[in-house]
Specification:
mainly beta, 4-stranded antiparallel sheet, 29 strands, globular
């Protein structure tokens, strides 16, 4: 137990240690319960994207090669959709999906079409994100990375609305993208730079550039993960550093060095920025942290062969974290009635491993604080 506590206390404060000291004097401490782990059965393996609905009632995922599944939390059932390259929930019961053929469909609300960005080919690695800005507007970001020239990776962004779409930004990109809805901004990570692009409204004449701000990292590090809440961006870096950039103050305000100093692969943050989940490479567990007080609350694991999740998605109240988990075919959970028919999986027959969707349920949205209002989740 002493070794575990030493590990929990080993997060090193960067930038402004006094900020954490002030927060500890003001904010009450919180606890992070041990989560109940549940493997979602009956779903394809190798997920590439996970997104929660705004009300926490659905979890959408894209699994290899492009199977799109929406899991209903209330009735514990799944709906399957045609292959998609990106998706998002825009509010209410509307489910927004972008098909491979370029048709943008929002079920029960509207039908949109958008053309795939030029330059796509089989010699390029492609990635895409569909990020909702408000009830009737999304940002579609698509990136291309030539196999022979990875340093020439580029991205393009277009705004999607009812019956229309228009491009507004683009450039080199080697990292993740997110949106800050309160500021109408698209945050783009490019190596050690963090860019903020304004998302234009429909019918507005676009200026020469919509790049509103470009800031460098506090250290010479490369951004690998990005999460946003309210007015801030939290970035995770190759060397195990986490920093927060406040768009209102236009300054880096918080920073920690995570235990192990491994590259950060995924981040998830609560809506008020109180709880931060960090997953790193070559680690048997991921970290749950009180981000405001700068304290590591719990190591969540262990994970098979020291391979912590590469995907993290927090439900709106931050009670449940969806992640991808590697499992050996000998794991008892792989043979339950809730899981796939493994006879069709080459990984099983060859003695390989599987990567499936797991839910980590912490049981209480307020994480043990004295009053519900102290947490402000959701």
């Amino acid at each position: 137990m002493g070794g575990m506590m030493a590990l929990l206390d080993s997060a090193v404060s960067l930038l402004t240690p006094d900020l954490f000291a002030k927060a500890r004097a003001i904010l009450p401490p919180i606890t992070l319960p041990r989560p109940r782990r549940r493997l979602l059965g009956g779903l394809p393996d190798r997920p590439t994207a996970l997104v929660w609905a705004p009300d926490g009632s659905h979890l959408a995922m894209i699994c290899h090669p492009a199977e799109t599944v929406v899991w209903h939390a209330t009735r514990d059932a799944c709906d399957y959709f045609p292959p998609a390259m990106a998706f998002a929930f825009t509010g209410g019961d509307a489910q927004t999906l972008l098909w491979d053929d370029g048709q943008h469909v929002q079920h029960s609300r509207m039908l949109l079409t958008v053309s795939i960005a030029e330059g796509a080919s089989t010699s390029c690695k492609r990635w895409s994100r569909l990020l909702p800005m408000d009830a009737d507007r999304c940002v579609f970001v698509e990136g291309f990375e030539p196999d022979r020239f990875p340093k020439s990776a580029r991205w393009t962004a277009r705004c999607l609305a009812s019956g229309a779409s228009w491009p507004f930004a683009g450039g080199p990109c080697s990292g993740p993208v997110e949106v800050l809805r309160d500021h109408n901004l698209l945050a783009v990570a490019d190596a050690a730079l963090l860019q903020f692009w304004e998302v234009p409204s429909r019918g507005v004449e676009l200026p020469k550039t919509l790049l509103r701000q470009q800031v460098a990292m506090p250290c010479t590090d490369v951004i690998r993960a990005l999460a946003t809440y309210q007015h801030s961006c939290v970035v995770g870096c190759v060397r195990g550093h986490c920093y927060e950039y406040d768009c209102r103050a236009q300054a880096w305000t918080r920073g920690v060095e995570c235990p192990g100093k491994d590259a950060i692969t995924a981040l998830a943050v609560s809506s008020d920025g109180r709880v931060l989940f960090v997953s790193t490479s070559n680690a048997a567990s991921m970290i749950g942290m009180d981000w405001q007080r700068g304290e590591v609350l719990r190591n969540i694991g262990p994970f098979y062969r020291r391979r912590s999740p590469r995907l993290l998605a927090a439900s709106p109240d931050c009670r449940v974290i969806a992640c991808d988990e590697y499992l050996p075919p000998t794991d008892d959970r792989c043979w339950s009635d809730r899981v796939l028919d493994w006879s069709d999986r080459m990984g099983i027959r060859s003695g390989g491993q599987l990567r499936l969707v797991t839910l980590l349920d912490f049981g209480t949205p307020h994480f043990g604080v004295t009053h519900w209002a102290d947490a402000s989740f959701g």
